[in-house]
Amino acid sequence: MQNIKILIIRLSSFGDVLLTTPLVRILNKKYPQASLDFLTRSSNIQIFKNNPNISKIIAYENNLHQKIKDEICNSNYNIIIDLQNNLRSRRLHQGIKAQKFYYHKNNIQKFLLVKFKINLIKNKISNVAEKYIASVEGLEPDNNSLEYYPDNLKIDENKTKKRIGICPGAKHYTKSWPIDYYIELSKYLISNGYEVIILGGKSDESFAKQILEKVPECIYGITENNLDELYNSMYNCDLIVCNDSGLMHFACTIPNKNIIAIFGPTVKEFGFLPYNNQNATVVENENLNCRPCTHIGREKCPKQHFKCMKDITSLQILKIIEEKINANDL
């Protein structure tokens, strides 16, 4: 056991890398004396900075491909778990003698569901985090969620109102609930006595500015991609409203955080629901035969109506917020 060396490869993206943390935890429990290394893009290394289950983080950049491949060759890994499973990741460990496991992406099933609405996944839906775990023979999921370990937890002792965090950003336009709806929701919340904080990283700054222009009472919580700041801001929220995004998965690193996740063009069959969070609610328009139109997001609605998002109203979200907040106060 003491000589086991394990390498996990998941280069991108932010949410997908977060979804590997249960596998990392379970592997460490099964092989507590093993050396467990993780290879990911430099932009994602913060995720594992204090993770006690990781021995070493290897930062990947395209221009360092050969150097990193040489490092892998010289590290004598016994087990390589390729969760990226594409040409780039396979080239990194090609020719290396080790026991290898791969994440199977079910691309054919996803293609049939998106293009022809043939649903072969319906009766066997599982979260991507569980699929990562299942990719390694002999592992079983536990009951815990995703993990992040900040340097310090800062609890806001001066908070006097219920605080709602809103995360308006998403990588693709069609995965974002319309910004006007976030503005309208923020106005309703503030008029009902809540605090509203806008959360996200640098790429979400333009969304925050649009909201603040219309609702200056909101708190600006956008960070310079500092995950510790984001974690503490989310921790001090009573509830978080988000899209189907990496921020949703990051909110799941806070145990049983109240979350409302708004799904538009994507569906639960793709496996990206909030993982092992009993207080998460997914809101989606289930009355459209054009869903799903994508499994990753689009830059515009192919039908031009965008009903998957526009039919989910701010009053509908407000009602769910108040139900969840009131339930917690009982």
* Major sheet size, sense and barrel closure: 6 strands, parallel
Range of helix content: 25-40%
Number of E-type strands: 11
Which residues form runs of ≥5 with pLDDT under 50?
A: none
Tally of discrete structural domains? 2
Radius of gyration: 21 Å
Which structural class is indicated by helix and strand composition? alpha/beta
As laid out across the biggest beta sheet, the strand order is 8-7-6-9-10-11
Number of helices in the DSSP assignment? 12
Q: What's the overall geometry?
A: globular
What would you say the CATH architecture of the largest domain is?
Answer: 3-Layer(aba) Sandwich
What is the CATH H-level superfamily of the largest domain? Glycogen Phosphorylase B
Strand content: 15-25%
Which key features would you list for this structure?
alpha/beta, Rossmann fold, six-stranded parallel β-sheet, five-stranded parallel β-sheet, 32% helix
What does this structure look like?
The chain has 330 residues and is an alpha/beta fold. The protein has two domains: 5-134, Glycogen Phosphorylase B (Rossmann fold, 3-Layer(aba) Sandwich), CATH 3.40.50; 163-329, Glycogen Phosphorylase B (Rossmann fold), CATH 3.40.50.2000. It has helices at residues 14-18, 21-30, 65-73, 87-93, 107-116, 128-134, 179-191, 205-214, 227-235, 246-251, 307-310, 314-329, and strands spanning 5-9, 35-41, 56-60, 79-82, 99-102, 163-167, 195-200, 219-222, 239-243, 259-263, 280-284. The strands form two sheets. A six-stranded parallel beta sheet has the order 8-7-6-9-10-11, sandwiched between helices. It has a five-stranded parallel beta sheet with strand order 3-2-1-4-5, with helices on both faces. Helix 2 packs parallel to helix 6, helix 7 (179-191) crosses helix 8 and helix 7 crosses helix 12. The longest helix is centred in the C-terminal third of the chain and has 16 residues, at 314-329.
